Amino acid sequence: AEAAVERLRSSMREQEAAEPHQAEVENAAMSVFERMRLRESTLRHEHDKMHEDKLRHVKLMSKEYGDVMQGIDQEAAKVRAKIEETRNRSAHFLKALFGAPHSPGDVGKFSPEWLLNRLKRSLLAKKDCERELEARRRECAELARRTNEQRLEVK
Q1: Among 54, 105, 144, 145, which residue has the least CB neighbours within 10 Å?
Q2: Which domain of life is it from (predicted)?
């Protein structure tokens, strides 16, 4: 009987010794759990913030792309106007050239020389506008490519 009492006392001592240690283990586990939960929420917040930044950047690039496209449309309208002006001047020049003959002393506006020079200037301006339009189109294509790359990164 004394042996049984002694065993009971020793098991009670072991339980009393294990209780503070058990509380420390539980506190440590809760602390680790809280740290992991905090880290997870921090990472989620950072990811959401990065995603919002990317969306904002894509929106800005889309606006810039739209502005460039609008500029290209304006340049194209100018080129079309120059082409139409050149056609009108050419028709007027041909009428002046083959219509009523000019006297040798005929000078000034709509004389054959003036019309020919005007036609040459208009053709040069048209070529300049076409070069500028092509440069704008390349720039626009580059912006579109970068925007698409960023859209893929956001997804």
Answers
A1: 105
A2: Eukaryota
